[in-house]
Predict the structure.
Amino acid sequence: MKVVVLTGAGISAESGVPTFRDADGLWEGYDPMQVATPEAFEADPALVQWFYDERRAALARVEPNAAHRALARLEESLGDDLLLVTQNVDDLHERGGSRRVLHMHGRLRAAWCTACDARHEWTGTLGDAPACSGCGVRALRPDIVWFGEMPYGMDDIHQALWEADLFVAIGTSGLVYPAAAFVHYAEAGGAETLELNLEASDGVGDFRRSRQGPATELVPAWVEELLAQP
Ligand code: BV8
């Protein structure tokens, strides 16, 4: 069985990572157009670097939860028949045991050199303009896909959605494109579709099945159910 799982901020919420659009979400405090676009970075690089430095540092204070670990168990069982795509920029899937994670919106723990295009694993700050270890130029930005930028891995994702037997969206409000359209691709390819979310998202009507509840309860239960199928 070929499965594509798409996760959003909701899968990391119970680990203490703020979501974007919930009551205490990130966008409550910051206008995404001020901190998550190339124009914002051009206009005020210090603010944008600080915004991501803070979130990168906060990763050291959170741990993966039962939902992340359940998806790692699913990967152990399905191997390459599972594609885990995440909109999240945290590293909790990897720290929860997943080995193959497609971060379509980039990663907090990566830096992108705008001088030589190199990517580097990065756990420290970027606001102090460190030099690229490749070309030496002080031109590193967060390796994050901002609004108006092309997400990573789109060809692989579309291929996997087309071939999928099952598409599951976990902890996402389904408001950001192109991720919000994945369910339509999966449906067109003949896949079964399921939404697992704290509450029904605006796009819940696009899914054949949906369950509401916290990810740490819904995801382990769903994985055990799937793995128990003949
Ligand atoms: C692009 C990195 C084109 C930054 C992010 C009008 C129509 C269609 C598209 C557009 C449009 N206007 C503008 C666009 C394009 C735009 C877009 O979609 N805008 C939206 C706002 C309308 N999209 C883009 O710009 C994308 N690029 O289109 O490029 C292009 C074409 C050619 C060439 C070049 C370019 C790029 C989008 C990526 C932007 N970057 N992140 C950062 O992280 O700082 S998006 C950001 O939102 C995060 O990645 C986040 O993951 C993503 C989606 O949010 P969610 O993950 O869903 O989080 P949210 O808080 O919204 O929801 C949480 C959910 O969890 C809730 O439903 C809640 O109920 C649930 N939950 C909470 N707790 C729990 C839980 N569930 C379970 N258990 C719990 N405990």
Observations:
- The chain has two domains: 3-17+64-105+150-227, 19-61+109-144.
- The beta strands are 3-7, 82-86, 101-103, 106-113, 119-121, 140-144, 166-170, 192-197, 209-212.
